[in-house]
Amino acid sequence: MNFAELRFWQLLVSTLGLIVLARAFFNAVFPSKPCRLDKPALLGLGLFLLLSVSWVTFAIFLVVAVSSYVGLAWIIKRHRNRGPIYLVLLIALQLSPLVYYKYADFIANRVIGLQIPAFRDLAVPVGISFYTFQKVAFVIDTLALNRRLPRFLDYMNFAGFFPQIVAGPIERRQDLLPQMEQFRFHWLPAGIDDGARWIALGLFFKRCLADNIAQYVDVSAGNNPYLIWLANLLFGLRIYYDFAGYSLIAVGLGRCLGIRLTLNFLSPYCSTSIVEFWRRWHITLSQWFRDYLYIPLGGARTKYWAGTVAVVFIVSGLWHGAGWNFLIWGAMHASFLIVNRAAAKLSLPSLLGWALTMLATFFAWVSFYEPRTGVLMSKLQVLLSPTAYHAASLRAALNQFGPGHTATLAGLLVLTGAVLVLEWLSIRLKNEAYYYLRRPAATVSLVALTVLLASGQNNAFIYFAF
User: Fold this and answer.
1) Which of 127, 143, 394, 443 has the fewest CB within 10 Å, making it most exposed?
2) What is the structure's pLDDT at 27?
3) What is the pLDDT of residue 338?
4) CB 269 within 8 A of CB 358
5) pTM of the predicted protein model
6) Identified catalytic residue from 79, 320, 390, 405
């Protein structure tokens, strides 16, 4: 489900049109049972759109979703008093497709050294990390909090709500399930207007900013610190506007249907500490690790809190990808958070705190995009070597692009800077992320800019790979 492709919108609009006709016919034939078609239609819509991605993605989703529900129902009916034992077994079953498709090659070939060719050709089903974590949380919450088992149709709509199934947000039972149990196609003008603004902002982030920036991300430079920093900067901007763009479109689609999804991003590049950054970046994943890993390991209550933070962020790094570079990225952010907490009593000016946070965040991006361990270590050494920052390297960096491309990139960075300023003002003046980017005049401007400046190259959303 690539929201940036025209094909998705064609499928969505045509399918919704069929649903409207089917509802009208059903309500005419069964006037005493209005809206009985709504929940099945929503599930059918989600499954159809997922099948349009690929049949493998569709099949794996059904396996994980149905086995989670059946296993949970079995535990509740027969073995609730032995819940913890069977809970562990069910979670292992839920995670097994994720482990196989995403980590078999890394574990078997790169860690153990078995060199099994079949594992190298495994394609990760789109969205498997997201919907697997959502179902694991659902099972834990249902058993640990002694919640009732919902009806299968409501559960499947919770598990397969199409705007967020392949790239989040990772929704929790208490937030999304009640909305699915009460779902009706209402087509309220206020909800459609609100949703359209989020969709316009998300498409602008993706098509105008992320896809244009992607054309200038050159990760080949290995011994020029200025070019490595430029790659870090552009990649960091691209991944934010790419992933946040997807998440905002998902929120907008949900609002159009009367469903409120969690805002997965709250302008993280406006953060003045690394702790605040992780409260604003990929929020639902951060909350998932907090509730199901960090707190069970002792959280801030234990004297070994630094080790707990390290474990959580190393696991978080590996969630993003099966590679040593992702482990290193997680370890970097763990060290940043440990230092941040250890120095919590220090009061820094907001501008200095922001600068240090951005320096750490963009420094770490190199370990996210560079999968070759030897090359990554070499790049880190260059970035940390004062002698590498000489005039010849700076001149080479300034001559990296031709005059036309340099002017285009400069204009793109100016536009991105203006957007970041509006994000900052939204938080500092209104305490509401993206407030000034969702005003009516801003929405019209963003639509115009997207039409005029959208990249001719349609890149898939980065987080589809996770």
Assistant:
1) 394
2) 78
3) 94
4) yes
5) 0.93
6) 320
Check: CB of residue 385 under 8 Å from CB of residue 399.
Answer: no
CA–CA distance, 195 with 257 (Å, rounded to integer): 9
| Gap between the Cα atoms of 226 and 249, Å rounded | 34
Radius of gyration of the chain (CA): 23
Q: Are 261 and 202 in contact (CB under 8 A)?
A: no
Q: What is the pLDDT of residue 345?
A: 80
Q: Which residues does 355 contact at the CB level (< 8 Å), separation at least 6?
A: none
pLDDT in tens, 307-349: 999 999 999 999 998 899 999 999 999 999 999 988 878 888 9
- pLDDT less than 50: residues of the chain: none
**Quick one: pLDDT at residue 178?**
96
Mean pLDDT for the chain overall: 91
List the domain boundaries for the chain: 35-185, 190-272+348-388+396-465
